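Deviations from the work plan: none for this task. Representative record:
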Amino acid sequence: MTKRTLKQKIPQAALYLWIAFFVASPLVLTFVLSFFSRNARGGFSSDLTLHNVLQLFDATYISILFKSLRLASLTAFLCALFGFPIAYVIATSTPKKKLYYYALLLIPFWTNFIVRTQALRQLFSPAGLDLALSPTVIIQIGMLMNYLPLFVLPCAVAIERLPASVWEAASDLGARRPSIWIKIILPMLKKPLIHGSLMVFVPALGEFVIPDILGGAQGFYLGGLISEQFLKARNWPFGAALSLLLLLSAALIVFLQKNNSPKDIAGEVP
Amino acid sequence: MRKLPQAPRFLQLLVLILLALPFIPILYTLSPFVFESGFTAFAFKKLFAKSELIVSLFRSLKIAFLSSILSLVIAALAAWRVEKHNDRIVSLTLHLSMALPEIVLGLSLLLSYSLIGMNLGNLTVALAHASFTYAFASLVIRSHAQNLDPKIFEAAKDLGATPFQSLVRITTPLFSSSLVSAFLLCMTLSLDDYLISAFTSGAGQDTLPMRIYGLLRYGFGPELKAVTLLLFGTSLIFVAVGLPLSMGKKKN
Amino acid sequence: MSYLEVRDFSKNFGDFSALKEINLSLKEGEFVGLIGPSGCGKTTLLRSLAGLEAPSSGRVLLQGKDITAQKARERPFHMVFQSYALFPHLSVRENIAFPLKVAKWSQLEIETRVAEVLDLVRMKSFESRPISSLSGGQSQRVALARALASKPQVLLLDEPLSALDPQLRDDVRAELKELHQKLKTTFVLVTHDCDEAFDMCSRVFVMNHGKIIQEGEPEEIYKNPKSLFVADFLGELMSLPLNSLSSPAKQLSKLRTLDNEPDAIYFRPEDLSFGGEDLDISPDDIKLSSHICDISFRGSHRRLLLEIPQLNQKVAAFDPHIEETRKLGDPIEIFIDIERAFLAHSERCQ
C-alpha cells in the first residue's frame, strides 16, 4: 500500500514543483516586486514602498488602462459576433466540409503572427489599398483576425455537443426558428460563449505586438507600457505594479462573469 | 449522433468569405513572387545572405522541440492528476496558466530566473514556453481522456498488467493521437511566441519571431517575404498532408 | 472446504460504508449470483474480489490462502466489465492476447490459446477486426474471451447482459450457462435482474445496504424469503391488511410469519387461484370475492387485475387458460394459497 502511494507521490511531487516554480512563484514575485523601490542603476532594492502602486492612479496610466480595456472588450465582442456564425456553420456541417473549414481557419493561424500582422499593415499602407483607415480601426481588425480562432474552436466544440433532440423537441413543441434560438439554443450555449469571449479578452488585454506593428505611436497600450518598463526604462518595480494591475483587471472581469452566469444553465452540456 | 440542422446556404457562404479574408494580406504580401519576374531568386538570395535569420529559425525550432517535449510530460501529469485524482489545485493552475496574460508570465519568469541566478539562453526560453503551452496540451489530452471508458485501465490491471506494462501497452498507444496533436499545438504556440521569448532569452539569442520583429523596423524586405512564403507554404503542406490523413482515419 | 472465502469484509468510502462485514464462501466450479437493488454494494463486492478495491477490514481467502494483499493483477480472477472495457486501439486478437502477453506467454502458446477462446465464444471470423467495428453482442463475447484467455480460477461478471438488446440477452444467458458447464470455472455474476440470476446461478446472495441478507438456491429463497425486502425484491408481491380480512384466527395461524407483529398478508400473483375450476384449492385457503377490472394477454397466460370491493383494493393474478372464457367485469372468487402466502409487518420492507 505504501509502496503504491509512493510511486504516485513522485510524479505528483514533480508536477507540484513545476507549478510552484513556473506558475506560483513568478506571480508571487511580481506581487512582491510591485512594492520594491527602483535604484539608480536600473535595478531594484528591497526597500518597501507604495510609490509604484500609487503611480498607477496617475491619469496617464488610468487612461492607458481604459484604452486597453476597451480594445480587449471590443475584440472579445467582435470575435463573438463573427465567431459564433463561423462556429455554428463548422459544427453543423458534414465531416468532410468541416475539415475544409478548419483548414481555412488554421492556415493563416499557423503562419507566424508577426508576419501575418505585418502583411495586414502592408495591405492597409498607402502603397497598398490605401483606405485611409485610422490606426485604431486597423489595430482592431488585426486583433480580430488574430484572436478569432481562440473563440471559434471552443465554441464549435460546444455547439457540436448540443444534442439534436433539443432542437427537435423545441420544433416539435411548435417553437419557431428565432424563438428556438433565443429561448433554447443560446441559453444552453451561454457558458461556452462566455468562456470563449474570456479566452479572447484576457490575452487581448495584455497584447503588445499587434498594436505596436499596426498602430505605431497610436498603438501604445498596457502591454506596451509594461514591456517598456522592463526592456527599455529599466523600472522593474513599476513594470511589476503595472502587470499586477493587468492581472487584477483580467481577474476581476473573469470573476464578475463567473458570478453572473448561473451554474445550472447548460452548466454541464454533455 | 444527430446534430443541429445545417446552417442555411447564405450563412455558409458568408462564413466561407469571412474565413478567406485573412488570406488576403498574406497573399498580397506574397504577390511579388508571382507578378515580379526574378523576385523569387532575389528574395531567397537575400534570405540566405542574412545568416542570422536562418540561425534564429533553427534556434526557434530547437526551442520549440525541447519545450514541446517537456510540455507534453507536464501536461500528461497534470491531466492524470485532474482526471484520475480530481486534483483541484492542478485544475485551478491549468485555468490560471491559460488566463495569464503572456506579458505577465514573461516578466515574472524573468524575475524568477534572475532571482535564482539562471543564465538566460535557449533553455530558459524553452522552459518559459513549456510553462504556458502545457496548459493547452493538457486540455487536448484531458478532452481525449474524458471520452474514454475509465474501466479500460482497470481492465488492464485486472488482466495482470503491471503499471509499467499498462503505461506502455495501453495508456501511451491509446493517447498517441492526442499526444501528437498536443505536440503539434505546443510547437505552433512556441514557434509563434514573441513576448515570452523576448523576456526570457539571452542577449543575441533571438528566436525567429524576435528576429523578424527586429527586421521589421527596416521595412518588409524581400528576405522577410521569403520567410513568409516558407511559413505559409509549410502550413499549407501540413494541411494538405494532414487533411487526407485525418479524413482517412474518420472513415475507418 | 470452501474454494473462495470472504471473511468479515468491510469497505468504507469516507463516511459511507459500502460493504458491512460481508461473509461468503463459494465452492469450486459454482455459478453464483450477487443480486440487489442499485447501490446495495454488489458491484463493490465484485470489485473487491477482483482486487480493484482494497478492503477497509476483512480478508479474502482462495483455497485457504490469504490473498487480501494481492493486487488485481496478481489475482487469478478476471472480470467481464459492464461496459466491456475493450482496448479500442487493439484488434480482437490483440485484446484477447493482452493478458497472455503481459504474463509473458510464448508467441506460439498465445496463438493457440487465442484461437481456442475465440472458438469458445464463436468469434473465430472476427479475429483481426478492430474493436470499433463490433456490435454490442460481439464486444461482449470478446470481453468474455479476453477474461477467460489466461484460464482464471474465478470469472467475475459485472452486469454482463445489461447493455444488450432484450432478444440477445436470452441467447447470451444460455451461452453463459453452457460455457460454465464446459469450463467448470467458478463464475460470480452481479445483476439487479432476479430473473437472470435465477436462470443462470445455482446459488444467489441477496444484498441490501452493504450486507448479504439472504443466500441460498434460487427456488429456496424465492419460496422462503427471510424478510419482506427479499420477497419484494424477488418478484411481484401484493398485500392485504389483516384487519380487513374476515378469516378466522385459526386459519391465519397456519400461515408462515416473518416477524412478531404481522399486520398484513402477503402473496404473489401465482399464489391466487380461482373458484369454480381450480382443483388444488385447500379448504383452508382464504376466500375473497372480486370482479375483473383488467385483462392483459401475456402469451403463455393472461394477467388479470381483480378488484376486491369489500377491501377496496386491487390484486393481480395469472390465468393459465388462454381461451377467452373470462371477460371484463365478470365476478370471480379468488383463493389465496395458505401454503405459500405469509404474514409480515407492513412497515418492515427494509
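The CA atoms of residues 180 and 186 of chain A lie 9 Å apart.
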